[in-house]
Amino acid sequence: MLNKEFIFIRLMRYVWINGKLVSEKEAVIPILTHALHYGTSVFEGIRAYWNPDLNNLYIFRAREHYVRFHNSAKIMGIKIDYGIDELIDATVELLRANEAREDVYIRPIAFVSASTVNLDIRDLEVTTAIITIPFGRYLEPKGVRAKVVSWLRIHNSMFPMRAKVGGIYVNSVLALMDAKNSGFDEAIMLNRDGYVAEGSGENIFIVKDGALHTPPTYDSILEGITRATIIEVAKDLGLNVIERRITREELYTADEVFFVGTAAEVTPVVNIDGRVIGDGKPGPITLKIRNYYMDIVHGKVDKYRHWLIPVY
Ligand code: PY5
């Protein structure tokens, strides 16, 4: 399973912390750090793709990610001292300092860094950091087997799920461990109302009669940037996208199913709960979308070049 390689991730030489480049070895936090105990962090996952033809590294949709970062922080009441443009510039500066010339995963995080047991975070110190990690594939691009797990997605009425907050990921960890312990590659979570929500770290689409269907944002999902990208570019491929509630059995009877996310990119789901999806191989529409997405992130589609920020 490809996931394993991420257990042994290698950090790049520098980490950006509160405006300074710090050696990766010095980028450590104290044991009583608030965020470690209570999950009081907001974070992002951004990819930068190396393009050997253009001899350059391109960050994909950095602005949209940093807008969501700011929104997550605002919802959570965490104050980020750096504006969106400053964070984009910091990311470019960091990648240059790290002499990144390969595919990279960028992990911005803002966390309550004060050492205290107090839950009132209003006046507590916040640290903002950006970490870069050489990164390959997150899920097997040839297709994954997924399990609809019994753990439900945390409901929007309990926590605003469009905020990408550290503590919320314990829900994803439980879901993924349930799937893995049952011999599957990835989890699919339903929401409290019984409708399909998302994967542990991905949004989900189904293909039915040539159209794409994906759960609406009010169904307790993270409003993914890859999801938004697919919705926007699908029309170029002549595909309609319908945002609507999806039931569990619709997954089984879909023509194709795929996950989308920054890490997962576009990953075919070939089996769900032991039911073969379509003919058990990545479907033609999924592959078409995957190829188009990979072209877009590599700067091969002119009309979406504005989503890419060159590092050099
Ligand atoms: N849903 C969840 C729960 C996610 O964690 C993610 C992203 C997505 C959807 C997709 O969002 P986007 O398209 O904006 O990336 N997950 C992280 C990622 O970098 C990684 C989690 C391990 O893909």
Mind explaining what this structure looks like?
This protein has 2 domains: 4-134, Aminotransferase class 4, branched-chain amino acid transferase, N-terminal domain (D-amino Acid Aminotransferase, Chain A, domain 1); 144-297, D-amino Acid Aminotransferase, subunit A, domain 2 (D-amino Acid Aminotransferase, Chain A, domain 2, Alpha-Beta Barrel), CATH 3.20.10. Helices cover 24% and strands 28% of the residues. The chain contains 7 helices and 17 strands. The strands form 2 sheets. Strands 8, 9, 10, 11, 12, 13, 14, 15 and 16 form a 9-stranded mixed β-sheet that branches. Strands 1, 2, 3, 4, 5, 6, 7 and 17 form an 8-stranded antiparallel β-sheet that branches. The longest helix has 15 residues, at 62-76. The protein is globular and about 50 Å long. The two termini are 34 Å apart.
CATH architecture of the largest domain: Alpha-Beta Barrel
Name the average pLDDT.
96
Radius of gyration: 19 Å
Largest sheet, described in full? 9 strands, mixed
Structural topology:
Blueprint: E1 14-17, E2 20-23, H1 34-38, E3 41-43, E4 46-51, E5 56-60, H2 62-76, H3 84-97, E6 104-112, E7 126-134, E8 144-148, H4 169-181, E9 186-190, E10 196-199, E11 203-208, E12 211-214, H5 225-233, E13 241-243, H6 248-253, E14 256-261, E15 265-272, E16 275-276, H7 284-297, E17 308-310
The chain binds 2-[O-phosphonopyridoxyl]-amino-pentanoic acid.
